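Why does residue order matter? Because the sequence determines the fold. Keep that principle in mind as you read this record.
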Amino acid sequence: MIYHAIADNLKKHLPLKNTFLKDLHVLDSASRTKQDSADTMIRVGRTIPKLLSNAEIDHIRHEFMMYAAETIDQSWYIKKKYYDSDGNNHTEYQQIDYYRNKTLSLTTSFGLPKYPTLSKIVKNILIISHGNSDVERGFSINEHIVTENRTLLSLSSINGLRSTWDAIKFYGVGSPHRVPIKIDMIRAVQKSKSVYNQEQLSLKSLADREKEQSEKYEHTNEEMKKLI
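Structure:
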């Protein structure tokens, strides 16, 4: 009975009738030669807001027909074939990003990208989040960075700490000593002191103006009280 309840809950909350998600099967290598795949790709391109111009949308069909006629290396979409212990044949496919990276890297005889519009669509589809894990991970990182003795830091300081953390993870694989020291980084560090001083001067100037306005307001109130 519990499995029926789980299934009903999934059918109720999963986007099973979402046309856009259904159309994304067009990214699969098996959809390349299907008759309606070009129309499906056009629908996908139109659905993503503010991504393509009208001219680019009109160009989708032409690019897709070229892609459908392309000679694709089987190793781009099939990782391996093997038999299990019972003698059954199995096929393990490449991940979609691997396959798409191969096909979208194709160029013309002039060295230009062969499928610029399709590339734009595919890349934007593949970065769609599949859940809240990235956001939740970001909150956990921020909680780790902003410790009790850092709770009074300004937003710009917290952003700076987070940027540093992300840079170390990306360039140094999580280890500060592995981050390559380049001239741009040296210049940025040299400039940081002057940027900090300039920011402090701006804050002091703002505080002085607010103080001056407050004193004028109090003086005006005192004059009004005398008149009354």
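The chain is about 60% helix and 5% strand.
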